[in-house]
Amino acid sequence: xxxxxxxxxxxxxxxxxxxxxxxxxxxxxxxxxxxxxxxxxxxxxxxxxxxxxxxxxxxxxxxxxxxxxxxxxxxxxxxxxxxxxxxxxxxxxxxxxxxxxxxxxxxxxxxxxxxxxxxxxxxxxxxxxxxxxxxxxxxxxxxxxxxxxxxxxxxxxxx
Length: 159
Description:
This protein is of the alpha+beta class. It has helices at 12-23, 91-101, 132-141, 144-153, and strands at 4-9, 26-29, 38-41, 49-54, 57-60, 69-72, 83-86, 105-110, 114-121, 125-130. The strands form three sheets. A four-stranded mixed beta sheet has the order 1-4-3-2, covered by helices on one side. The chain has a four-stranded mixed beta sheet with strand order 7-10-9-8. A two-stranded antiparallel sheet has the order 5-6. It comes from Phenylobacterium kunshanense.
């Protein structure tokens, strides 16, 4: 199970506000990593959270018996990291949120198995947002047996 993830943003406070809206949750300062960091606490049964650090923050192991520390590195706008998150919002509300922030969003299907809304946070980080209907599809298909069936069926057709 995943309890929390961390991401980088040009404007952690603004991104935290957007994710809090998606979750109907709360964004708060997150000082352990450094000034400007934010944490969004979902308030769900797992206490899910997303930590948002200023772009360029790198986590490094600390010397001895100490917590990892955040250091400033070279900012990177795009990468392979992405996540899928649930929202209680309807699809039109997610698209309205994206428009409010000036971010790209589009409806997609993943391998013919389930739908997502690709929300491009700061037009740099892909977050797959799943509405209630999409969550039901995801939970039905993204099982070990469902994945085996998908592999046996072969690669999905190109769009």
